[in-house]
């Protein structure tokens, strides 16, 4: 890593600390970015997590994890991790996680034999404590509810997805005092449900529509309630959570910090995150390890000439290339991985730490795509390009369409939604940002899609690069760190437009700021105050 890269990363960490501790979750006064698209109120989440509710006379369980895990016993107590991971439905999850841990440790010992690895501060690489994960001393706590109807292009009949995001939390370290450390641990578990499920029936026995579901969510933006009142209204008849039921589970996703290496004499600090997906099999009533959406299996493709040729042919087909550009591509399972290790920080310089490194000429010995292949695909036409206008744009899109590359971009560590800790002494999303700049920057696009659904129009499901939000023609993000303000990602522009990459010409900084690059090779950097 170059000195410039290290310097930029240090400044990035400073910015993140400031954002996480001081900025309210708003782009403009009185306009919360997540309005109508997510539930992040810590007091409402606490109420949703902890028990039964009587919303307008209707008794129903809350949104703690227990009701959403098949084969768990039915009661009102939170499900602790010793019970959770002993359930038949979760046995494949535990097995797959254990196997990935063993592979990770074995690979580490083979590639870094002089750097110790294990659980505890005495090791140079500090491993995630699986004993704690599987014990009664921890459980997953509801950290957020997120509307992802912007993913209806993947599941149109289900109107997209609703995500219940849970954060692993220790139970034997209750926070005491305003300065106490949070008992939360670096792992999230996402329960992904169909937005329109089996019980989504409107009055009169008619199945509800995507339009009606979107309208319910958009209405939240006008609600003044918080805490218990908000939780009850969310679940009441006509509320957006009325139809969210365990029967509608599609899959669970896990993301955990598998190991952390503090800065030392031999390396910069580094943190690795393990991400996996488990689809629910209704016949076996178990979550089964599955390919991760658009997570290209780089090592397997590069080592198999036939697979390499097949992937190249498939991706460069004009239809598929156009969907890659729009960000709506769904890559076939045969080219995908079932797990990914996403290191962070990766800086702004291409390296083997990025998931698609080596797939394009110039980044490895045996690439899948030659430069002429990409140029030819760009010239074929048949679609209007929105993002990919160059080889560099193609490389960036390959990296950010999968879980690993997206989580390396503008995340809080390796997470996009850690949520507010409602177990804290003063849980408030006014002083703690519950999600990453990537998450909040994307809310304008997501809300535009929800609005289209609510109006009965066909939504535009396209999305920009993970580093820069798609603003949909609004100025809501202008001048903020989400778009072109201090700390936002940028591309160094030159006076001669011909010298600027067409994929990144719009990646500029607001007035008074300048793009300070990490590497002359990429000209990518962050917006900071101009200096002489």
Number of helix segments? Answer: 15
Number of strands: 19
- How far apart are the first and last residues' alpha carbons, in Å? 25 Å
Give the C-alpha Rg: 23 Å
Q: Which consecutive residue ranges, at least 5 long each, have pLDDT under 50?
A: 1-30
| Biggest β-sheet strands, sense, barrel | 10 strands, mixed
Account of the protein in words:
- The chain is of the alpha+beta class.
- The strands form five sheets. Strands 3, 6, 7, 8, 9, 10, 13, 14, 15 and 16 form a ten-stranded mixed sheet that branches. It has a three-stranded antiparallel sheet with strand order 17-19-18, covered by helices on one side.
- The two termini are 25 Å apart.
- Strand 18 (513-517) and strand 19 (524-529) form a beta hairpin.
- The protein contains 15 helices and 19 strands.
- The protein is globular and about 65 Å long.
Keywords:
15 helices, ten-stranded mixed sheet, three-stranded antiparallel sheet, alpha+beta, 532 residues
Task: Give me the secondary-structure topology.
Blueprint: H1 3-22, E1 26-28, E2 31-32, E3 38-39, H2 42-50, E4 53-55, E5 58-60, H3 81-84, H4 91-111, E6 117-118, E7 125-127, H5 130-133, E8 138-148, E9 161-170, E10 184-194, E11 201-202, E12 206-207, H6 210-219, H7 227-235, E13 249-261, E14 270-281, E15 286-290, H8 298-302, H9 305-316, H10 318-326, E16 339-344, H11 371-380, H12 391-400, H13 403-407, H14 437-441, H15 443-455, E17 489-491, E18 513-517, E19 524-529
Parallel strand pairs: 6-7
Antiparallel strand pairs: 1-2, 3-8, 4-5, 7-13, 8-9, 9-10, 10-13, 11-12, 13-14, 14-15, 14-16, 17-19, 18-19
């Amino acid at each position: 890593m170059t000195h410039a890269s290290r310097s930029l990363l240090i400044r990035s960490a400073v910015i993140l600390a400031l954002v996480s501790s001081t900025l309210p979750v708003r782009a403009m006064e009185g306009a919360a970015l997540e309005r109508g698209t997510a539930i992040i109120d810590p007091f409402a989440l606490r109420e949703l997590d902890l028990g039964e509710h009587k919303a307008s006379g209707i008794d129903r369980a809350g949104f703690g994890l227990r009701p959403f895990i098949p084969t768990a016993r039915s009661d009102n107590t939170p499900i602790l991790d010793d019970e959770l991971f002993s359930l038949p439905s979760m046995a494949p999850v535990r097995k797959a996680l254990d196997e990935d841990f063993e592979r990770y440790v074995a690979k580490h010992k083979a590639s870094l034999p002089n750097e110790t690895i294990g659980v505890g501060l005495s090791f140079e690489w500090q491993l995630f404590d699986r004993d704690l994960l599987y014990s009664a001393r921890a459980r997953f706590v509801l950290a957020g509810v997120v509307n992802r109807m912007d993913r209806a292009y993947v599941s149109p009949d289900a109107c997209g997805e609703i995500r219940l995001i849970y954060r692993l939390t220790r139970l034997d370290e209750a926070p005491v005092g305003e300065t106490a450390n949070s008992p939360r641990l670096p792992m999230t578990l996402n329960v992904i449900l169909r937005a329109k499920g089996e019980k989504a029936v409107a009055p009169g026995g008619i199945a509800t529509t995507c339009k009606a579901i979107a309208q319910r969510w958009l209405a939240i933006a006008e609600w003044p309630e918080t805490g218990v009142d908000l939780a009850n209204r969310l679940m009441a008849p006509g509320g957006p959570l009325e139809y969210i039921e365990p029967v509608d589970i599609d899959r669970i996703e896990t993301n955990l910090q598998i190991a952390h290496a503090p800065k030392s004499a031999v390396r910069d600090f580094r943190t690795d995150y393990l991400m996996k997906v488990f689809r629910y099999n209704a016949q076996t009533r178990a979550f089964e390890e599955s390919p991760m959406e658009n997570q290209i299996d780089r090592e397997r493709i590069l080592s198999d000439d036939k697979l390499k040729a097949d992937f190249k042919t498939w991706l460069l087909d004009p239809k598929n290339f156009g969907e890659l550009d729009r960000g709506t591509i769904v890559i076939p399972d045969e080219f995908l991985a079932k797990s990914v290790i996403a290191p962070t920080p990766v800086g702004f310089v291409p390296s083997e730490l990025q998931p698609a490194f080596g797939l394009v000429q110039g980044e490895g010995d045996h690439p899948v795509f030659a430069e002429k292949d990409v140029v030819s695909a760009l010239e074929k036409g048949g679609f209007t390009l929105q993002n990919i206008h160059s080889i560099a744009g193609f490389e960036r899109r390959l990296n950010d369409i999968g879980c690993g590359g997206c989580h390396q971009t503008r995340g809080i560590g390796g997470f996009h939604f850690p949520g507010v800790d409602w177990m804290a002494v003063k849980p408030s999303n006014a002083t703690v940002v519950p999600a990453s700049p990537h998450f909040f920057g994307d809310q304008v696009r997501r809300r535009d899609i929800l609005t289209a659904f609510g109006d009965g129009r066909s939504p535009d499901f396209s999305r920009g690069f993970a580093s820069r939000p798609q603003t949909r023609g609004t100025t809501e993000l202008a001048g903020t760190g989400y778009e072109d303000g201090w700390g936002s990602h940028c591309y160094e522009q030159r006076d001669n437009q011909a010298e600027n990459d067409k994929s990144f010409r719009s990646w500029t900084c607001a007035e008074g700021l300048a793009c300070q690059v990490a590497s002359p090779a990429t000209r990518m950097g962050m917006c900071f105050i101009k200096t002489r």
